[in-house]
Write a structure and sequence with these properties.
Distance between the termini: 55 Å
Number of strands: 12
Helix content: 40-55%
Shape: globular
Low-confidence stretches: 17-30
InterPro entries: NTP_transf_8, NTP_transf_8_dom
Order of helices and strands: HHEEEHHHEHHEHEEEEEHEEHHHHHH
Strand content: 15-25%
Oligomer: single chain
Mean pLDDT: 85
Number of helices: 15
Largest sheet: 7 strands, mixed
Structural class: alpha+beta
Protein name: Nucleotidyltransferase-like domain-containing protein
Length: 390
């Protein structure tokens, strides 16, 4: 071998080693880009201003707030005098919600500037923060204006996912937010009600119609327009699977019912108040991002195995992986670990769902989850071996 060949071969090995090292370092580097601090600050301010604005719209100055105790818990209600001489009582929220209680106490001083909020939404959208498609925005705003989120309803699905970029301060791909429906979860027991839901939706699109439930044709949990856009209401089921797929009457929904779903109570526990970047901003409640991610992992393993089911499962796992990465990047490891542990400890069906989703989770999501869980991380190789032996 000539000296030149020897040097060339050594150089080749060196170049290969450096390329491998660079690839390893790139794999370790955060792939998600944080949102500039100025925009994160603006997003947080907009969320506060939007809730203020909703308060002004919902609770006129001539009314007053009262405390009502229900089953040992204190709640705020709002009494508004009517021409008939009888006060109209409206649900406001629990005393334990610090944001609500602060606004109750500062009600007379709250001011709203819609034009400024629109400017902030426009600035944030131009900076790359996602918002809903216009139709989903119109639907969510119409329901918000009717009082849906005041009654502690929780926005679900990809429309909710779009808010996590601003909430966590990290960029998320818009491809993970595409949707053809809007889902809302609500708990039973709220002592208030919306106007008829169908009328609210028809104010956005007159083509909306109620869709009878398959298990009980007299109950309506979903509404659909001529283009197939679907709005559905859900509620949590902590009982046996026999209740899943059956509708529950929901007086708060103005005559509509809600679909019972397993695992939903976990998802909507202690939701996060945020803002949807649409028009002047829409104040909404969404699931805590760590619960959303863990829940998506479970749901992905329970989808139907037809083509549509596989597509939805892929999207579930994609959103879960992206949030696992985002939560680790933004140092929310502890919250993610706690959310995982709670789900894991709920029983065999929960562990089965988590394990099934984890087996097909994208690699980056698996690595991020492993970093958050440490020794809690399930043994993937053992899980795969168990799956092959069945």
């Amino acid at each position: 071998m000539s000296g030149d060949d020897f040097i060339s071969r050594r150089q080749g090995r060196f170049d290969k080693a450096m390329a491998e090292l660079a690839a390893e370092r790139a794999a370790e580097m955060p792939m998600m880009k944080e949102i500039d601090i100025s925009y994160r600050t603006m997003f947080a301010e907009l969320a506060q201003r939007t809730l203020d604005g909703q308060f002004v719209a919902d609770f006129p100055m001539e009314g007053w707030f009262v405390t009502v105790t229900v089953k040992g818990r204190d709640y705020w209600y709002f009494d508004l005098p009517t021409p008939e001489g009888k006060d109209k009582r409206t649900y406001v929220g629990p005393h334990s919600d610090e944001a609500i209680t602060a606004r109750v106490k500062a009600h007379k001083e709250i001011k709203d500037n819609i034009r400024e909020r629109r400017r902030m939404v426009s600035t944030l959208r131009r900076a790359g923060l996602p918002g809903p498609d216009p139709f989903a925005g119109d639907i969510t705003k119409a329901l918000a204006d009717a009082g849906l989120f005041r009654m502690r309803a929780v926005l679900m699905g990809s429309v909710a996912f779009s808010t996590y970029a601003g909430t966590l301060g990290i960029r998320l791909p818009s491809s993970a937010m595409q949707t053809g429906d809007a889902d809302f979860a609500i708990s039973a027991g709220v002592q208030d009600s919306l106007p008829p839901v169908l009328e609210i939706l028809q104010s956005v699109d007159p083509a909306f119609r109620a869709v009878p439930h398959q298990a009980d044709k007299a109950k309506m949990v979903a509404f659909q327009n001529a283009k197939g856009y679907r709005v559905e209401f859900l509620t949590g089921n902590r009982g046996s699977d026999e209740y899943t797929g059956k509708p529950s009457p929901m007086p708060a929904l103005g005559g509509a019912s809600a679909e019972n779903l397993r695992f939903l109570d976990y998802l909507i526990y202690e939701p996060v108040r945020t803002v949807l970047l649409f028009r002047e901003g829409v104040s909404v409640l969404v699931p805590a991002p760590e619960r959303y991610a863990v829940h998506k992992l479970i749901v992905s393993s329970r989808r139907l195995t037809d083509t549509l089911g596989r597509v939805k499962a892929d999207k579930d796992r994609s959103q879960a992986a992206l949030l696992f990465e985002a939560l680790v990047e933004t140092r929310h490891d502890d919250e993610l670990a706690d959310a995982w542990a709670e789900a894991w400890d709920r029983g065999d069906s929960w562990r089965e769902g988590l394990s099934g989703g984890l087996l097909r989770l994208p690699d980056k999501g698996t690595k991020a989850l492993g970093k958050a869980l440490g020794s809690q991380m399930p043994d993937l190789e053992k899980m795969r071996a168990d799956g092959r032996s069945e």
